[in-house]
Structure formats: structure tokens, C-alpha cells
Amino acid sequence: MHRQLDDKTLVNGQIAPEDVAQLKADGVTLIVNNRPDGEDEGQPTSASIEAAAKVAGVDYRHVPIARGMGPSDIEAMRDAMHSAGDGKLFAFCRSGNRSTLAWAVAKSEDGMPREELARCVEGAGFTLDPVAHLLRD
Asked: Per CATH, the architecture of 3-134 is what?
């Protein structure tokens, strides 16, 4: 149901409200939705997933990334990552790619070396190529 980027961060594609309980059982304390509502027909709304998270006692953030990542998207991801505390953060979008790339740029801003970012991202089946120009050296 998810791919692991590091010991505290999981990503994947679209989830449904009924998936939230399993995420909580897996140690997730914060869900970050990187999809804008209405991106695909039949996609659950942010509000429906947020409601399920509230019932399960899991924090929720909606950080929709629609047409490329801007500085505010990265700052919102950094804030979410830092607020997850000792729990796990689960971020999702259509495929997990946007969430992974937003995580990578945010971790780069926090000082994670590019080589370590590449190892984490590639280990989850993604590539840093689309955001390479945004990463610190």
C-alpha cells in the first residue's frame, strides 16, 4: 500500500477514506494529500479523506501540487515533515511521484545530501531527474 522513502516517510498513489485505518495501524500520524481535488474523475475528495483521518485520530494536510512545485509547496511539505514528530508521514498523489519529489526538495532544503536523496528516491522506484535543478549541492 506504500513505498518507503526513509524511516519516517511513506508515499504512494491515491488512497480512499477506508485506507486511513490501515495507515494508522502502520504507524502513520500525518497524511499529506498532494492532489488537487477533481484531478481525475471518481477521485475521493480531500474533505472525505480528511474526515476519515479525523475519525482515526490521524493529522491531515492538503498540499495540492498541480502544475509544478513552487516554493510555497516545498515550505508546506517541510512544515508537514517537521510536524510529524516521532510518527510517520504518509504523502500521496496520483502515483506517488509528486509526493516523492516534494519530499526530496524539502529534505534537500533541510540539508540531506543529494546522494542520500537519490538512494531513497530510487529505492522507492522514482527518479530525482525532474527536480535535480532544485536540489542543493
From this structure: Alpha-Beta Complex (3.90)
Return the CA Rg of the chain. 14
Spatial strand order in the sheet of 9-12: 3-6, 9-12, 88-92, 28-33, 59-62
Within 10 angstroms of residue 66's Cβ, the number of other Cβ atoms is: 12
**Residue type at 55?**
V
Buried b (16+ CB within 10 A) or exposed e, 101-132: bbbbbbbbbeebeeeebbebbeebebebeebe
Measure Cα distances from 11 to 22, 50, 121, 126 in Å: 14, 17, 10, 11
What pLDDT does 14 receive?
97
Expressed in percent and rounded to 5, the helix, strand and coil fractions of the chain are: 45, 15, 40
Q: Mind listing the pLDDT tens digit for each residue in 91-133?
A: 999 999 999 999 999 999 999 999 999 999 999 999 999 999 9
